[in-house]
TrEMBL record:
Pfam families: Aminotran_1_2. GO terms for biological process: systemic acquired resistance, salicylic acid mediated signaling pathway. It comes from Stephania yunnanensis. One of its GO terms (molecular function) is transaminase activity. Residues 178-497 form the Aminotransferase class I/classII large domain. Its cofactor is pyridoxal 5'-phosphate. This is Aminotransferase class I/classII large domain-containing protein. Keywords: Aminotransferase, Pyridoxal phosphate, Transferase. The keyword Kinase does not apply. SUPFAM superfamilies: PLP-dependent transferases. Belongs to the class-I pyridoxal-phosphate-dependent aminotransferase family. LL-diaminopimelate aminotransferase subfamily.
Amino acid sequence: MGRQSSDEPIMLSSIALLQERFKRLQRVKEMREERELLKMFPVTERIKATIIDHDHHDQDLGFPIAPSQTQKNSLLFQPESRRKDVVETPFSMNSWMAIGGDRGEGFNCVEEKWGLQCVATPEQTVYTTKVARNENLAKLQAGYLFPERARALSTLEGYSGYGAEQVEDNIHRLLMQKLRAAIASTFYKGLGIEETDVFVSDGAKCDITRLQILFGSNVTMAVQDPSYPAYVDSSVIMGQTGQFQKDVEKFGNIEYMRCNPENRFFPDLSSTAKTDIIFFCSPNNPTGATATREQLTQLVQFAKRNGSIIVYDSAYAMYISDDSPRSIFEIPGAKEVAIETSSFSKYAGFTGVRLGWTAVPKDLLYSDGFPVAKDFNRIFCTCFNGASNICQAGGLACLSPEGLSAMQDVIGFYKENTQIIVDTFNSLGFKVYGGKNAPYVWVHFPGRSSWDVFAEILEKTHVVTTPGSGFGPGGEGFIRVSAFGHRENVLEACRRFKQLYK
Ligand SMILES: Cc1ncc(COP(=O)(O)O)c(C=O)c1O
């Protein structure tokens, strides 16, 4: 048994495959050797089993069974259920590993050792999305050539190769692993996102396109309207959309989820069409609006009902100063329906340095039960050679106690800029949105075209803003004013705004 077999998808409905897997496990003398292999299988089946003796549970394993699995299987470890009682219980490959780890002394199944007869009631208990796996990824064979080779050559001190970042063999050795661990513990502590779920990249924008490659051209998608243009444009490039419809300023086959002051910038999900993918950004660029816990709970439930995958962009999460969630994974159930992408660009001024990450939980599965993370790993190793070591070292420094405090200072500075801009437009009588948890101020010019206002401001004050309609038809009548700038420039711009609109 080797790495090869861990690369096979386990089809949840296929009891024959499960039996085959059990047979092979039977041949492994020391089950602990297979721990990495077994960690790959989030498969839960119902089986009939007999407990014949006490079991050591996961003590020998060196890694804990996920709490939910432990809980699910606790029945197996209760004294009353020992001896010859036949119990029917959900049973996962992970716990099989745990039980197998004591060389079969502790557990046996009805009739035959190692569970060859454990076929009583196969029943799928894991949640899968309804998004079909990209069939082109399924065509690929083993891992991408160069990471495979790098794995063989890499050493602690020297060559780590490129593109092999997600290979677990070197997990404690590479700088990348340290950064993954630091990201997981800084941004996802207690949320069930592990370092192995984190893909370190050269930025969230690049990951958005990689995610589109992952999903392929046969998916449908929804976006907030207005939204960061990379979602729609990458969707168009991938061939997921129809033509641009000039009359409505929308691409065909994209669900535009209108977010405006009337719905407090959160879409009306009761009238939102079901799509495979939902791009959602909070705090939002351009509106600066932040979704509440209740709203994100609705979104996760909506995705779950429809079998959709949410791509959650949290590039501005550190700007949140109220109790709005900073990560979608704060919402129960999100790990089964969401991917999160984020960035050092807005926290540490890494816009040009280029460093970001995407978290893809192991619980996120395509409709056939195949883990999305495995395909994303393949995309990463094929389309990307890793963030440079210099950028990674910079990212690690950002996540040190001093770095985190420096990032808070930077964010605090931009938030002061934001307040200056908000106060300026408020004093001029404009309705102003955003600004609170985001470095963007969304200013309403009712009845006017965004482009006209943009041109007016540019020509008369020589200040560059962004026309709201550039972010989708829902942005018409607004302009976005960014707080990313030197203080004296922001103050000067505000002085000119006051002159223009007094
Ligand atoms: C919502 C959002 N996501 C992602 C990005 C890009 O992030 P990165 O610099 O990490 O590619 C931006 C940059 O403007 C953004 O506004």
